[in-house]
Write a structure and sequence with these properties.
The chain is α/β, with parallel strands linked by helices and about 425 residues long. The protein has a domain of about 190 residues: Rossmann fold (3-Layer(aba) Sandwich). A hairpin with a 2-residue loop joins strand 7 and strand 8. Helix 6 packs across helix 15 and helix 8 crosses helix 10. Keywords: Cobalt, Glycosidase, Hydrolase, Iron, Manganese, Metal-binding, NAD, Nickel. Belongs to the glycosyl hydrolase 4 family.
Length: about 425
């Protein structure tokens, strides 16, 4: 099995304990490896390191776990870097959600102006990371989970030679609740989704080998007026039937935007507010377990559960162990693997992963009914990557104006300036002028 040195950037985050539990669950695939936890928070790093060390020992996994706040030192000689971090933490995510709402625009973590600001913050960190890798681990590969993964990957692909593969479970999970709402068994279906991250659609959808769409239509007729079925479950089934393609959950913000915005305004807390109300309990649980001889993470008290970032670990295992697996990956659309998108655009698609790399399976084009909005989001992705890497305020405004959430140039300009002011501590001067 593969023995690698892996740096985990974000190793002191609230997701890190669950990520290490996931890595240890796959421990037999990485016998003799070392994981270096890297973060700016020494106390949280030590909690995660202690948890991971004890869990590995109790599971009989040969894994060395170290921790450091010195990024360059932690990256020395690594084979791989797992990136999952949130510059500005949940406090800035809260602003990403609240500030757009003041301008009449949906505030969301990865979509629209909120996601754009997260990309600006994240890519500043990636520039420092890549400079450090060039100095101390030039052959390392990045396995990325930092959002928005598509914009991060686009910027790194466009401006560096550092290999990066980004992951998200969406293509594996978006479609299952829609089938369940229609009264169908996901285990009997084959659904292949593609597009850009968080904005993919089904290009193959069968049930017991037959076209799935007639069955979804029948399911929709049964639940369309059934108020016992939650409203957003009905909305997403309706969208799948209307577009004749199963959507990523995030398309509710685009096709039912006014309804979602009104609901967002009416809520006492945004999503970030809800998470912030639980963060202290996450860390109380982690500290309790770190103090025990046999730590056990409770999924209800762990951020994201106890098998976090498992898709990235699956991709790592398939690659470093040359153990072929079919998995969804975000990568450059080399050779036009996904028809309808430029070859240098980062797209999300199912791939065969083995020791030689990641290879897209044969892709069907997106249906015309949904291709246009996805292409628009791909073009916004490219503009956002330009602004984040070395662009100016003008580049940032152009990117925002290209996003479907933003109705006018005036809103793009005013909203960007408001967001940039709130993010001043995380942005370079070129984006503040």
């Amino acid at each position: 099995m593969a023995s690698i040195k892996l740096a985990y950037l974000g190793g002191g985050s609230s997701r890190a304990a669950g990520t290490m539990a996931s890595f240890i669950h796959h421990g037999a695939e990485f016998e003799g490896s070392e994981v270096v936890l890297i973060d700016q928070r020494p106390d949280e790093l030590e909690v995660v390191r202690t948890l991971a060390e004890k869990m590995a020992r109790n599971e009989g996994v040969d894994l060395k776990v170290t921790a450091t706040t010195d990024q360059r030192a932690g990256l020395e000689g690594v084979d791989a870097v797992l990136t999952s971090f949130r510059p500005g933490d949940f406090a800035m995510r809260l602003q990403d959600e609240l500030i757009p709402m003041r301008h009449g625009v949906i505030g969301q973590e990865t979509q629209g102006p909120g996601g754009f600001m997260m990309s600006l913050r994240s890519i500043q960190v990636f520039q420092g990371l890549i400079a450090d890798l060039d100095a101390v681990a030039p052959g390392a590969r990045i396995f990325n989970y930092t959002n928005p993964v598509n914009i991060v990957s686009q910027a790194v692909e466009d401006h560096t030679d550092t290999p990066i593969w980004s992951m998200c479970e969406g293509p594996m999970t978006f479609w299952q609740p829609i089938l369940e709402t229609a009264g169908l068994d996901p285990a009997r279906a084959e659904v292949i989704m593609a597009g850009v991250n968080h904005n993919c659609w089904s290009t193959t959808h069968t049930y017991d080998g037959e076209d799935l769409m007639p069955l979804l239509e029948q399911g929709w007729e049964k639940v369309r007026d059934d108020l016992t079925v939650p409203v957003w479950e009905r909305r997403m089934l309706h969208l799948a039937v209307a577009m004749q393609s199963i959507p990523a959950d995030y398309f509710k913000y685009y096709y039912f935007g006014e309804e979602f915005f009104r609901e967002q305004q009416a809520n006492r807390l945004t999503r970030a507010g809800v998470i912030l109300s639980h963060v202290d309990d996450y860390w109380a649980h982690y500290r309790e377990q770190a103090a025990s001889d046999r730590p056990r993470l409770d999924p209800e008290r762990s951020r994201g559960g106890i098998h976090e970032l498992e898709l990235a670990i699956d991709v790592m295992s398939a690659f470093y162990n040359d153990a072929p697996a079919r998995l969804p990956v975000n990568l450059r659309n080399t050779g036009g693997a996904l028809p309808g998108f430029d070859e240098d655009t980062v797209v999300e698609m199912w791939c065969d992963v083995d020791g030689s790399g990641v290879h897209p399976i044969e892709q069907r084009p997106l249906p015309h009914a949904v291709r246009g909005i996805t292409q628009q989001l791909a073009e916004y992705q490219r503009l956002a990557a330009i602004a984040a890497w070395d662009g100016s305020r003008a580049d940032a405004v152009r990117a925002l104006a290209a996003h479907p959430f933003v109705p006018t140039l005036a809103v793009a300009e005013e909203l960007y300036d408001d967001l940039a002011h709130a993010n001043a501590a995380y942005l370079p001067d070129r984006l503040l002028r």
